Amino acid sequence: MTSESVLVKARALNAEANKLREGAEAEDNAKRVLTRVDELNTALDGLQRALDAVQKLRERGAEVALPPLDGGREAFGQLVGTGLPPQRAFATAKTKIEGTWQQIESNLKQAWAAWTARLAADLQVQRLVMLPPSDRRSNQSSLNTLSKLGKVDIPSAGNVLEFAVVYASLKETLDALPEPLPELQALLKRLAERTTLDRLSDADVALLRQHDVADQIEVQRRAV
Predict the structure, then answer these.
(1) Cβ atoms within 10 Å, residue 178
(2) What pTM was computed for the model?
(3) pLDDT on residue 187
């Protein structure tokens, strides 16, 4: 074997090694890009969920401010040329999208709290006592559901829809009921603030029984 043939083979082997090295580097780079794509998709999914909830709230009359939504796309487009996008393109876009997402969630949180509080204040909850016991328990459960949903920090579109449906049904029921007697309301208020049995008259007990609310009152002996 001549020195020339050895040199040719060495160059061929070196070229093949370079191809393998470039292939491995390309594969590693592709894996990194796929990871960044997954991260970007996660941020976009979160942003979309927030936007869906905002839309449902707006459809029901709530005011929710929205920041500009194309910052991430612009940042990504400016850095992407041909071929695989550079890592900084993903990082910049992800930062922009997450910033927009966080701002929308902050606005959504405030709007949700204000909207649920306003609607809850419109419910004539004192009229629950005018329902028969079985219906009263069912509607009290609806009221509890609204209270639980109202405590959700950042709602989903599903939370908004559930609150709206439960609220509409409960409000319709309560609006159709008459106001309880003033003396019954006063008595229930006294009992809610706690009182002793000696301060309840026979007429008070009879009033509770008359309106089927005696089963809501629990009597317990205080430790001496």
Answers:
(1) 7
(2) 0.72
(3) 72
